[in-house]
Amino acid sequence: MKLQHRGKPDPAIGALGASRTRVLEVLQDAGTQLNVNDIAARVGLHTNTVRFHLDALVAAGLVASKAEERELPGRPRTLYAANANSDNAGSRSYLLLAEILASSMSTQTPEPREAAVKAGQEWGRYLGESPPPFKRVDAEEATERLVSAMDTLGFSPEKVTRGRQRQVLLHHCPFREVAKEYPEVTCSIHLGLMKGLLAELDAPLEVERLDPFVEPTLCVASLASLAPGTGD
């Protein structure tokens, strides 16, 4: 049966790139060591391009290289062979998995938004960093930590303060493809992540709301002050 997937291409599929994957496949199929010229002839690429891909595959631990053993004068050639673990470097389809889970939650959960926020909060707490005992984290430090965490997660955040109003502008959504199709679930998970990150700090600050896609590549999180010790 041919699999038909109506979603967008998964950026994780073929993460090595088509040419680099082909170089790896040639080495896997060869079952022996090959030099750059041999590989270039089999994949139909220039030797310099093949060297570039081989360097990346060696750095990733998928290919091993060694100097050719020879008694003749001259510089020995470099030989390459696929490592035993290279078979695990095939395609991934995490986007498809995310779409399956998001669609399932949106249609089979009685309160999908609330469930998604709760799931995000749990993961936000897990990913967050608790302060040391007796350490109080103020709103400014909590905002900085939230921005740092969201940056690590790939949201390209920007802190904006206007008087007593605090916002975090999110210029990139790593869940964009799924968020566009299932915003109720995906954006709620995103909101929950931020809530959980702040809750783990026990800071006098909470994420009051998240406005998704106020511009094509911008979401805005609005923060609100809490009385100390009243965090989630």
From TrEMBL:
Gene3D superfamilies: Winged helix-like DNA-binding domain superfamily/Winged helix DNA-binding domain. CDD domains: HTH_ARSR. It comes from the Bacteria. InterPro entries: ArsR-like_HTH, WH-like_DNA-bd_sf, WH_DNA-bd_sf. Pfam families: HTH_20. This is Helix-turn-helix domain-containing protein. It comes from Arthrobacter wenxiniae.
